[in-house]
Amino acid sequence: MWSSTSMTTASETQEPPQWPRVSETQGATAVAKSLGKLVNLNHVVLNFAFNNLGAQGATAVAESVGKLENLNHVVLNFENIGLGAQGATAVAQSLGKLVNLNHVQLNFNGNSLGDQGRRALKSLEEQVAARCSIKV
User: According to the UniProt record, where is the region Disordered (predicted)?
Assistant: First the structure.
């Protein structure tokens, strides 16, 4: 008669490691902190779409990007992140400081920007249009 026994190794019975829970805002803040150290960066593409960064996380990222004086190409995908007027304004103000920009592409679809946020983005477009291709 054939008998089957099940063997379980010690590694199979251990619980998987428990990683600390990090909110999207905390994650964006950590990315922003690291990004700010890349002072020679001239091209950045960031995709935070469908993550709940909110205005606080987006502002942290925007402020770090705005300090990267060598940037000439910026693509930010902030689709459906809970950006709001405050976040849109922070992005517009930060990017407006970058004098070397020649390409900006922004995706704010699915966010409620309000009149204030739309005005800030329109102001950014007007500010950089002469020296930069911009898609909002």
Answer: 1-25
| CA distance linking residue 106 with residue 46, whole number of Å | 10
**Could you tell me how many helices (H) and strands (E) the chain has, helices first?**
5, 4
Give the angle 10-12-17 at the CA atoms, nearest 5°.
100
* 87-102 pLDDT, tens digit each: 999 999 999 999 999 9
Determine if the pTM surpasses 0.70.
yes
Residue 82, Ramachandran bin (φ over 0: left; ψ between -120 and 50: alpha; else beta): left
Question: Model confidence at 8, in pLDDT bands (50, 70, 90)?
Answer: very low
